Automatic annotation (TrEMBL):
Ranges of residues in domain ABC transporter: 18-248
Domain of life of the organism encoding this protein: Bacteria
UniProt membrane topology term: Peripheral membrane protein
Gene Ontology molecular function terms on file: ABC-type maltose transporter activity; ATP binding; ATP hydrolysis activity
Chief site of localization: membrane
Coiled coil: none
GO cellular component labels: ATP-binding cassette (ABC) transporter complex, substrate-binding subunit-containing; maltose transport complex
Species in which this protein is naturally found: Fulvimarina manganoxydans
Sequence similarity: Belongs to the ABC transporter superfamily.
Protein name: Carbohydrate ABC transporter ATP-binding protein, CUT1 family
Residues of the full protein shown: 1 to 252 of 392
Keywords assigned: ATP-binding, Cell inner membrane, Cell membrane, Membrane, Nucleotide-binding, Transport
Amino acid sequence: MGAQARWQTIADAEGSGLTLSKVRKSFGTVDVLHGIDLAVEPGEFVVFLGPSGCGKSTLLRVIAGLEDASDGTIRIGGRDVTDTDPSERQIAMVFQSYALYPHMSVKENMSFGLRMNGAPKAEIERRVASAVEILQLQPLLDRRPGQLSGGQRQRVAIGRAIVRDPQIFLFDEPLSNLDAELRVAMRIEIAKLHQRLGNTMIYVTHDQTEAMTLADKIVILRGGRLEQVGRPAEIYDDPANAFVAGFIGSPK
Ligand code: ADP
Ligand code: MG
């Protein structure tokens, strides 16, 4: 990253698209990703959809740099990031389990990462205030995660991602711990967030409704391979095979 401080966003003339070329991942002798080729346009909302165990989380973690790819290339905005640390990828990830620090207040949870990376106080305040406004977290700022509902915790986790000002957001089944009603409300909130921020977002789910309503583009995964990539209507109307048709609940 050179002289660029870790809390700063890298201005990138080529935008914040993502390109995966022949990305493989093995754990020991077990091949989990079998050579993934995928292009994500800047600003696109892409949903990875597939059954449990098909490699969705592994693919996200490889994109984030939390796992090394065994082979292949990952480019963000035209920059080869395959061998870089997670902190150099300008990515923020939101997990199903929220991953908040239990002993810190909401405000501390949101500012901690920037503080660790040496961002100036005024910059931290500015970014936290912006995320608080976007997600309406003002009334919760002094609470600890244990004093929040599941939906509130997930909003804080999303706020913490926004504060990092990433080029790309990665969401790993962020709503699966919430009850059905709250899931719908949060889904709408995430769609609005995408409209407002315009960032590239990659969202993992095994829920077809979430995929169909949120995605610009759906990527169907099975057994570590891409079965089909397309707009929701394309996939619904013209599934590539019986697996996709069955999974998406299409009439074909
Ligand atoms: P999904 O998120 O689609 O449910 P995962 O990416 O979590 O799937 O897992 C895909 C496969 O990779 C599973 O068979 C899982 O057991 C295996 N796997 C994931 N992480 C590891 C790991 N750290 N070590 C060994 N196997 C793993
Ligand atoms: Mg998973």
